Structure formats: structure tokens, C-alpha cells
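Internal QA ticket QA-208
Title: Verify multi-chain structure generation after dependency bump
Assignee: T.L.

Test input:
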Amino acid sequence: MTSMAAPSEGAVEAFKKALATAASVSAYAMLARGMARELLPDELRAAVHWGAAFVCSRFGAREKERHTIVIRRSVDKNQCHYDNASSQNDVFDAARTYLATKINPRTMSRLCLGRSLTTEPDGSSSSSTLLSMEHGGSITDHFDGVEFRWMFIEAGGDDGDRVKGGGEILELSYDAEQTDTALDKYVPFIMSTAEELRRQDRALKIFMNDYGYGSWQGINHHHPASFETLAMDPGLKQAVLDDLDRFLKRKEYYQRIGKAWKRGYLLYGPPGTGKSSLVAAMANYLRFNLYDLDLSSVHDNSSLQRLLIDMSNKSILVIEDIDCSFDTMSREDRKDHSLEDEEDGRDYRTGGERKITLSGLLNFIDGLWSTSGEERIMIFTTNYKDRLDPALLRPGRMDMHVYMGYCCWEAFRKLAWNYHLIDGHPLFPGIQELLAVVEVTPAEVSEMLLRSEDADVALQVLMEFLQERSGAVKEPEDKHDA
Ligand SMILES: Nc1ncnc2c1ncn2[C@@H]1O[C@H](COP(=O)(O)OP(=O)(O)OP(=O)(O)O)[C@@H](O)[C@H]1O
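Actual output:
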């Protein structure tokens, strides 16, 4: 504990004297102001005022010192370490992307409109339209309580000498005392905001592996599924969304606890309950590319490793029907074969050389793959969770298990809205009663709802379909166990 030292007598005296002096100075000032008002004519008072202002401007408090960062469109080649290094300055591009969000077309009289093509490290490209400042334009931005001023200057103009070889430049200026905020917070903030904006803008890709060669082929991914259109238990949907949001925000957390920044989801449930739709919704929500791994096309463990290493960050690895991809039956169920069978590298089902193994996949995912990249999500789907190897279900492996079940009342309401924009109908109560006892998948309900564009007809078709099925009673369901 700290205690305040008692002030010495001398200090108290000095403090009192200072107070008395301050009081008498302000008293004199008030008296002088009053006398001046009474005794001096207006012209003389104005002249005194002007004189005081002049003295202040010459000798008084000087304007705060400003610092400027110059950001050139292209980096001077001499600064590059490699001969073939690109001369494009990333910071310039990021600043322009960021500043586009600060442009107000209503208040700025001259603007530039451009379209740029961005090539991602994975080879995909996307174009975006950008509003930017015209040469000579300026923008003021506020961040963390600090004012930052941006100017866009053209090479070859008045500032031609300064920017020789650099093309166009952006100048960022701020109070000198805010240098730490500028460099340690504002510039990183601009870079990360620009990256996020570009990510939102870029076209998504889905990559599939070639047979045998261990390489990916990508095409644009336009699956329309979103969390908005997904018909599932609302609580479970929110839990998945919250988990994804938490994952995205936790870079530092994963670093601190020494774990790779990856997350695994196991989606399980009968066919047609929306597992693939949920995968697409997750990719769209995160703006992550999808890598759809078909294990039957992978020749051996080393091809598998090559494929996994070639995946980019911020991506989702999907292995559908994981129960069919390996001998994933639970080890307890193996009557005739011991674990040693697996370790000798032979496939005891065929007697031949085993191509790839579940342990090969899991070891690699836990090992090199998880440390060679970041922000990776891995999704396994299965129609039969009970057939999975316990190694897959071990805590820490698949972080969240999501059960995609038969169509419940809430899921039906979502589908009715998706397909017919209705939130109520005289047939709804009857459908609700039937859904409580009939096992029907969202895919089947969707199909019925699509039978007619007329909502009355489509709901009648669904009603009859459910009545036909009503002999089958739902078995109790094991809900999600995150
Ligand atoms: N939960 C859902 N929400 C919205 N649409 C769904 C849902 N489930 C299924 N559908 C509809 O049914 C179609 C098939 O569903 P999907 O392929 O996502 O199911 P799945 O569980 O992955 O099936 P499988 O196990 O056979 O691969 C989807 O394209 C979609 O139109």
C-alpha cells in the first residue's frame, strides 16, 4: 500500500503565496479591464486589441507541430530486396480502399471512379469499383479521438520533385504528439479494415481435388445458402453463429494458449436435413473459400498432405460423409481386427496396401497443417454419427457437434417464408400438428413447397404428404452436444 507524504510547511507557504499572487493578478486584470472600458475611447480600445492579437501571433503559442507520412503508389525499386519484387505499394492500395469508405459524394465536388482487379494468393481474382479522391483532394478522418488529414497528390505537379519515381502519393498528416497512435494503431487499423473490405468483396471459390495428383481445381462458389435462409432450430443456428464469431475474434487468444487457430465442426443427421446447406452458409458468412476434399480420389498420405498444405488461410476444409471415407467404424466394433492391423499399413478389409488412413489425416491436421496456416475451419459431415471412429469424436478434435434434424415447426416456418413469403395460413395449425409426429426432412418439405407457386396449392400438397406419412412416429432425438 502507498501513503501520501504530508506536505512540508515550506511547500504549504509557497502554495498559499502562489494563490494570493494569482488572486491579485486576476483582480488587477479585472480592474484594468473595467477602467479601460470607462476611460478609453472605442477606437483606442480596438487598436489595443489589434496590437495584443499581433503580439500573440508573433510571439505567443505557436501552432502544434505536424508530422506527415508519405505513401507512394509504387515502392522505389531500390528498396526492394528482390529483383523481381513487385513495385506496387500495398499500403497505398489499402489506404485507398479504406478512404473509399470515408468519401461522401454529396460533399466532395470532384471524385475519381475506378475499377480494379485483385488477384488473391490462391489464384482467384475479383474486381471491385472504387470511389477515390481526385488529385489535390483531401479528407479528414477521426480515429481514437485523433484527427488525421489525408491528401492525394499527383506526381509531376507542384510536388513533382518530391515524388519522382513514385507516381501518385497519399499524404497522411497529424499532430506530432500523436505519432504513436498514428503508427501503432491507425496504420494497422487501416490495413486490417482494407483487408476485411476486400474479403467481403471478393468472389468465393470452391476447390475440388483432382484424382491422384494432389492438386486443387477451383471454380466460383455461388451457393445462395445463408443463415437467413437456413431452416433449423433457431437456438442451434444462433449457437453456430456465435461460435463462428468467437472463433474469428480470437487470434490473440489462440496465440496466448499456444493452440493453432483452427476450429472443427461435425455436422450429422439424416440425408436432406441441410448439412451441405449449412457448410455453404458458413462459407458465405465468413467469406472463406471452400476446399471440398474427396478422399476417394487421394492416392496416399503424402498426396493428402500436399493437398492440405496447398490450402490458403481463411478457408474451410470439408470432408463429406466421413464415415464412408475410411474404415471409421468404432474400434470397439472391430471384432476380428486389432489396432495393430492399422499400424502395419495394410488394409485388413481388402488385404491390399492402404491408400490413406484416418490417423494420417488426423495427425497431419493436428500437426503441421495446423501450424502452417491460420484461420482454418474443418467440417466433417456424416449421416451416421454412431459409425464414426472415437478418434474423430475425441474432445478437442471436432469442437462443435451439430445435429441437423428432421423438419421442426420453426424450420417449416422459415421454409414457408423462403418459398412463398408467408408467415401464416389456415393450414399452418394442421401442418404444425403433423410435423410434431412425422419424420420429414427439410429437403422433402422444400420439394413440396416448390410444387406450385400458389401458396394455397403448395401447402395443400404438403399437408397431404404429411398425412400420408403420419404413420411414422418420430424417435426421440439426441440434440446438439456442442
Ligand atoms: N435445413 C435446411 N434449410 C433450408 N433448406 C434445406 C435444409 N435442408 C435441406 N434443404 C433443401 O434441401 C436440399 C438438400 O439439402 P442438403 O444437401 O443441404 O442436405 P444434406 O443434409 O447435406 O444431405 P446429404 O446428407 O444427402 O448430403 C438443399 O439444397 C435445400 O434446398
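Spot checks passed. The longest strand covers residues 111-119.
Status: verified.
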